[in-house]
Amino acid sequence: DGGITQSPKYLFRKEGQNVTLSCEQNLNHDAMYWYRQDPGQGLRLIYYSQIVNDFQKGDIAEGYSVSREKKESFPLTVTSAQKNPTAFYLCASSIDDEQYFGPGTRLTVT
Amino acid sequence: AQSVTQPDIHITVSEGASLELRCNYSYGATPYLFWYVQSPGQGLQLLLKYFSGDTLVQGIKGFEAEFKRSQSSFNLRKPSVHWSDAAEYFCAVGAVTGGGNKLTFGTGTQLKVEL
After folding, report:
1. Using CB atoms within 10 A of its CB, is residue B64 exposed (0-12), middle (13-18) or buried (19+)?
2. 20 to 30 Å CA-CA from B66: which of A61, A106, B14, B77?
3. Those residues with Cβ within 8 angstroms of residue A15's Cβ, 6 or more apart along the chain or in another chain
4. B98 interaction partners in chain A (CB closer than 8 Å)
5. A12: which DSSP letter?
6. Mean pLDDT, to the nearest integer, of B53-67?
7. How confident is the model at residue A21 (pLDDT cuts 50, 70, 90)?
8. CA separation for the pair B56, B67 (Å, rounded)
9. In angstroms, what separates the C-alpha of B43 from chain A's closest C-alpha?
């Protein structure tokens, strides 16, 4: 089955630690995206990548970093500089302007 | 800059009743418009999309939406709601960036269905 996988589903970290969220797709899509979702705020774009080895900042990139070394993988690192990291993180990929979403990772930082 | 407004945070309807979820957008050119649905703790599923052509768009699960340029709206409708439609619904507007579509989402409308 083709799709997008995000792991783990739940992630817990202590404040001050960096954490990396995984996103893998086997849809052969060129473009991939990371969104953050908070209650009542919809989805906000963190980073996106249109092609391997290239990525751009979205609307709320501060405190986050990404890499795109392989077409199928787009990991997101939440750094200690992110002031409010606790949120639901969604990865997506797209072809022909239609985005497909993964199941999400809920990150809790205490 | 593009933006999306979903004025209703929560909506409650009875099973079997009709449904309309409102979406207004702001965009400088002809927009690409989408409706997604999200069940609790899950990712988003595409219900329907509008790129061009016929302004009444049919989607999955019996949903439809109508693009009205004069009102900058893309409202989602369903003639008869089922209990399984209870979820959160997001409207989004897209800007084609050449190889990818950068979406701006509304804040969502939570739908509750009363049996």
Report:
1. middle
2. B14
3. A80, A109, A110
4. 50
5. E
6. 95
7. very high
8. 6
9. 4
Backbone angles phi, psi at B84, to 5 degrees: -75, -5
Whether residues B43 and A4 touch (CB distance < 8 A) is answered with: yes
Span B27-42, pLDDT tens digits: 877 789 999 999 988 8
Substitution target in B2, B105, B109 with the highest count of A β-carbons within 10 Å is: B105
Query: Which residue do the tokens 């497909």 mark?
Result: A100
| For testing contact with chain A, the best of B103, B104, B107 (most A CBs within 10 A) | B103
Backbone angles phi, psi at A6, to 5 degrees: -125, 135
Q: What is the pLDDT of residues A46-99, one digit of tens each?
A: 999 999 999 999 999 999 999 999 999 999 999 999 999 999 999 999 987 789
**Chain B residues touching residue A33 (CB < 8 angstroms):** 100, 103
Provide the token pair at B98: 């050449």
Residue entry with tokens 């899950």: B42
